[in-house]
Design a protein that fits this description.
Elements lengths: L1 E6 L3 H10 L5 E6 L2 H10 L4 E5 L7 H9 L6 E5 L4 H10 L3 E4 L4 H19 L7 E4 L2 E4 L4 E4 L2 E3 L3 H12 L7 H8 L8 H15 L9 E4 L3 E4 L3
Parallel strand pairs: 1-2, 1-3, 3-4, 4-5
Antiparallel strand pairs: 6-7, 7-8, 8-9, 10-11
Helix pairs in contact: 2-3, 4-8, 5-6, 6-8, 7-8
């Protein structure tokens, strides 16, 4: 049973999302503002959170930042705007994905399933005992852990999958579209900014000097690669 939290101040939106996500395997919770979502996240273990951006009392970005202090649960932001401003702000704070209102039910369900799959894979044991080491970065895909200079670093499921993809294919250049399709498991490419923000977060966690990365390199006009030094 997966616990999913839906947080939106518009009750009709919450009702619609509960209809979209009705599934015997999903235990659906609801909140009507960010403060309520934060309190629920302290009491329950959630596997996915759908969080509206604009809400009273505490907005979605502030709630996201608060939840990120203690949890790497996948968080999908719900934005009523088509502009990238809210989306990039949410990604900067630690969101994994976003969906723009009005919703396409099929898209919402696909994104939730994708995040659930990634999150449960990150927390589960596998039969593989492969450990990938490139420079000071070690990725243990059995334990689903990443260490830098033997110190464990905390990654979100999305960050982990991006790093794993690049470490398994060192020196290969992936375009933002290719990374999005493989990691998000979604052919509907959102924007280059989505991938760029996650790459920046990864650099901050695995590079000694994120502004002068040794491993996670940009190949201008083409994409990203993890360079084997």
């Amino acid at each position: 049973m997966y616990n999913i939290l839906i947080c939106d101040d518009e009750k009709d939106i919450v009702k619609a999302l509960k209809i979209y996500l009705f599934n015997e395997e999903y235990n659906l919770f609801e909140a009507n503002d960010g403060r309520e979502a934060v309190n629920l996240a302290k009491k329950h273990e959630f596997h996915v959170i759908l969080m509206d951006v604009m809400m009273p009392h505490m907005d979605g970005i502030s709630a996201l930042a608060e939840i990120r202090k203690t949890s790497n649960v996948p968080i999908i932001m719900l934005s009523a705007k088509s502009e990238d401003t809210d989306k990039i702000l949410g990604l900067n704070v630690g969101a994994d994905d976003y969906v723009t209102k009005p919703f396409n039910p099929v898209e919402v369900l696909a994104r939730v399933k994708s995040q659930l799959r990634r999150y449960t894979q990150l927390g589960s044991l596998t039969t593989s005992d492969d450990v990938i080491v490139i420079g000071s970065i070690q990725l243990d895909d059995k334990e689903k852990k990443v260490r830098v200079d033997q110190n464990e670093v905390s990654l979100t499921p999305t960050e982990y999958e991006i790093l794993k993809l690049l470490m398994m294919n060192p020196n290969r250049v992936y375009s933002p579209k290719q990374i999005y399709e493989q990691v998000w498991d979604d052919c509907g490419f959102a924007s280059e900014n989505t991938v760029a923000v996650h790459i920046r977060h990864l650099r901050e966690k695995v590079e000694i000097n994120p502004s002068e990365p040794r491993f996670l390199k940009v190949v201008w006009g083409q994409g990203y690669k993890l360079e084997r030094n």
